[in-house]
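Supplementary material to the annual report.
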Amino acid sequence: MSYLELTHLEKRFGTLRVVKDFNLSVEKGEFISLLGPSGCGKTTVLRMVAGFETPTTGAITIAGKEVTDLKPNQRNIGMVFQAYALFPNLTVAQNVGFGLKVKGTPRAQIARRVEEMLALIGLPELGNRYPFQLSGGQQQRVALARALAPKPSVLLLDEPLSALDAKVRVSLRNEIRAIQRELGITTIFVTHDQEEALSMSDRVVVMHEGIADQVGTPFDIYNRPATRFVAGFVGTLNTLDAQVLDAATGRVRLGATEIDLARPLPPGAVTLGLRPEAVTLGQGTHDTRLTATIREVDFLGSVIRLRADLAGQPIAFDTFNNSHVAPPQVGTEVTLGLNAADLMVIGA
Amino acid sequence: MKTAAAWAILLLGMAYFILPLVGLVEFSLSMTRGEYSLEAYRVVFADPRFRDTFSYSVLMAVLTIVFGVVLVVPTAFWVRLKLPHWRPVIEFVTLLPLVIPAIVIVFGYIRLYNTSSWLPLTGTTSGTNLLLLFGYATLSLPYMYRAVDTGLRTIDVATLTEAAQSLGAGWGTILARVILPNVLVSVLSGAFVTFAIVMGEFTLAALLDRPAFGPYLQLMGANRAYEPFALATIAFIITWACMGLIQLVTRFTKHDKAPR
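Predicted assembly:
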């Protein structure tokens, strides 16, 4: 049995089923992200683990103990909120020590732990400040220290980086991951930002309409999407309709080009997925060559994003900027190269 | 031209409010013929009934504030957290004391809790004091509830509560250590208004026959010339002191509020 088990979780609000038959097993020390668009049910799952929502059906088990019916203050869970939720009337040190004080921990022990936590988040000198005297990034670090101070069994992070500016987000997500690794604490992280989810997690759960569409490592989620939704939601993906010529050998026609996918396919039409980085301008060493017409050129600095027309279907791809070679003009016919193995067959 | 007109209106308004007060104070100082003196104040302070009624009302005011805080803070908190759809109903109920005269409330009390009723509170002094306390709490409810509710509006009640719960806090701890300290300024505003209301209240105390400051003011007004003016001045000073304290407390709050 895993450290944290969510079994057949379902949550209804009236007639609306927000979470449907959600199952997840999390190992001790694992960092799991719940990724999905707004309204997909990821926060509801997190709130059920925290105890703020009661599942309509299903069970939640932490370290072999069922906690489904326990109140939030009986679950020994640490939570970090998007809006920081620091207590404005308490200093940073008092905020960090709050959970320990509630538990009745001796004062000297609280002081030691607070010092330890403030050192961990890199703010050892700010213990006497009030939350309003801190920046957003500092407040969120204090919120993390406060959640970790009572040594919770599970750490829940509810979009903790959403309210921060881009630069702070990147540095803080690295810090959070480093602290999580150092403490080895089982963590569930809710986000709608795929970059955050992919860069921080051991495994990612992609949620769609209350269901876990796919659970896998960031590599698997990105490179082997199980559903059309996952393929479209995670990263940028070109979806191309192709005609199956030989279902047994996996031969398809894409535009004017016949490609051998070397895997069995359903007969008729099939949708293929292709990441922009799998396409190159010019065939190069790739095994497949396509012809397309450039429709749009976006100069992004180090990268140039090109959008082209491939036999009536749009295809986007990137090329690195080369100061000696100008990007192709709109309307130019170009040769594209790709490897057939990079074409994904998109399921339902 | 516009500025002059604005100043003229302001001065007129100030005169409208200040001149009667100047007259009040001036008359309260005129007890000794031919000179200004504090004689009326000396007589008032020397009167044992003043000391008794004043201290009784102060005690009742403090008890009313404590009862009001215990009643209103958890109620407003719970309504905001769990029953937001009940807010209009609760607000309507808390506003009722503004439209229902105190005399109606006190006659209702006397009818319900007289010596031949199932709960004869008026039969004992402590029972009647308790009724008076409830009456005062009812009269101050619109101000206390509004003040606390406004305070709660300035903090993210739901998230702070959940944060405290996730750290192991129960409802009592959340109310005492998280919610109350963050709405303390609002609670104190409500408390000072309650204090001013209780100190001047006449109807409930008179009809329940309790030795409060309001009936004493009325008694002096009916029988003396200068002393009622001295008492009225004292009552004004108490009210203004309360308002000043509200300002002070608001200004010297140590911490800021959480973003909503």
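Residues 236-340 of chain A form a domain with the OB fold (Dihydrolipoamide Acetyltransferase, E2P) fold (CATH 2.40.50.140).
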